Amino acid sequence: MAPLLHTHQIHPRTTLNRLHFLLYSLSLLLLLHHHTTTPSFLLLLADVFLAFLWLLSQGFRWRPVRRWEFPELLSKVTASKDFPALDVFICTTDPYKEPPVGVASTALSALAFDYPSDRLSVYVSDDGGSDLTLFAFFEAAKFARCWLPFCRENGVMERSPEAYFQSSGCDVEAEKMKVMFESLKERVDCAMEKGYVDLNLVNSLEEKEIFKTWKNFTRKDHPSVIQVLLESKKDKDITGHPLPNLIYISREKRPASLHNFKAGALNTLLRVSETMTNAPLILTLDCDMCSNDPYAPKRALCYFLDKDFSPNLSFVQFPQRFTGLNKNDIYNGEFRRVFTLGEQGLDGLQSANYLGTGCFFSRGSLYSSPPMAMPSFDEFKLHSCLLSSELILLKAHEVASSEYEHGRKEWGSQIGFRYGSLVEDYYTCYRLHCQGWRSVFCNPDRPAFLGEAPKSLVDAISQSKRWFVGLYQLKIFSMVTGLRSMAFCSFYVTHMILGKDEVLMME
């Protein structure tokens, strides 16, 4: 009998939620009845409308669930060398809004997952096409040769070097690592101040040739750039242990071609990774959302390796948690109702939302509707060629072309991350759920990923504006196409209408 890899229970507050629903419903009925005895028709109409919106919001409060995973039992299911391969997607766009050192720290924290290194690949999408970002990753690849064995041998949990050196006292060995990381930061900061990569900062002749070609690049007009920075089959750390793959990608941008924002960048990563590593599991991470628990992939495996649970499982979502929140969270940066409470309720309906980061996908779910039996992870064959081989890179450049999706209308509508909304995460999971896929909300005691909350009023309002405009787009789409499911509609309507209080608080 297979061991129990995960379990769940109905959340303790469920009874209170249901009791509140019944009492509040009774109060609403009495109020509406009272309105029928008064001549104010407009007041009655307004209260009926508000009561209807409140009713829709109750779907994800009716059956919230809590889950627990037992990753220590995975060894009884399969050996670690047989774990399904994992591709990590990290997107960045502007080196001045998203500092390259911070993005590199996020990538380093993913490279340092407690996962077989020959089955782990990290892809960085630089949608700004910046030589500054690529330079930072050349430096990060060198630093990884020392950083990964340091984390492994010292049991480090915060595997983002930025977060680790800010929060921990340093012993002699850690102090050496800190000096190396400060040197990396100084070199990158020097390039940032100049606005370009001075060839005097580059030691390798190969790197010099790469940066010489960058002079004519602009943010919106440049060819595709794919650079294999670390390759598991040939690169090793200072202890002789194989390193995971690290690949930098900047898709081709041309003024005449639509690029579809972050969803377009993710779909390019989806195609390039299929060409290069073709891992059956995919993790999407925001560039400022670092790993805080190196065992997070194993928690996700507790669901994906459960043969009775996973046939129609599309993704496992971890909550967004934040550092840097001020004492009273005056900008409502935690978004606890959206990122935790609502997710637990939707998980009880088998439809937790994709929050854009900290989410493990089954690659197969992004290509088709759920089959009768989920294909084995072994069916995703890893390529035997070196990632840096001419044949692999030629195919990767082809699928990263700005012209690739022309004539392939299924991309963004039936395949991959969906186009048509500024919130591609909500829209993508909405479409996946409508196809019959289910999802899981995984909320361990130790936050699996940590990001930074908006630090200013302008940043907070800008973020909320983009989210709510995207949600309105999604609502309009659902009305036009007649997509069904009261549970999903209730969640989106709640966030679009009742969720306005969050925006009003910020204003």
Automatic annotation (TrEMBL):
Q: Could you tell me the keywords of this UniProt record?
A: Cell wall biogenesis/degradation, Glycosyltransferase, Membrane, Transferase, Transmembrane, Transmembrane helix
Question: Binding of Mn(2+): at which residues?
Answer: 262, 286
Membrane spanning segments where? 16-34
* Keyword Isomerase in annotation: no
- Tell me the membrane topology, using the record's own terms: Multi-pass membrane protein
In which domain of life is the source organism classified? Answer: Eukaryota
Q: Name one GO cellular component term.
A: endomembrane system
- Identify the main location: membrane
Please tell me whether the keyword Glycosyltransferase is annotated for this protein: yes
Residues that hold UDP-alpha-D-glucose according to the record: 97-98, 127
Q: Which Gene3D superfamilies match?
A: Spore Coat Polysaccharide Biosynthesis Protein SpsA, Chain A
- Family matches, as InterPro entries: Cellulose_synth, Nucleotide-diphossugar_trans
Q: Which organism is it from?
A: Dendrobium catenatum
Compartments reported by the entry: Endomembrane system
Protein name per its UniProtKB record: Cellulose synthase-like protein G3
**GO MF, any single term:** cellulose synthase (UDP-forming) activity
Quick one: a GO biological-process term for this protein?
cell wall organization
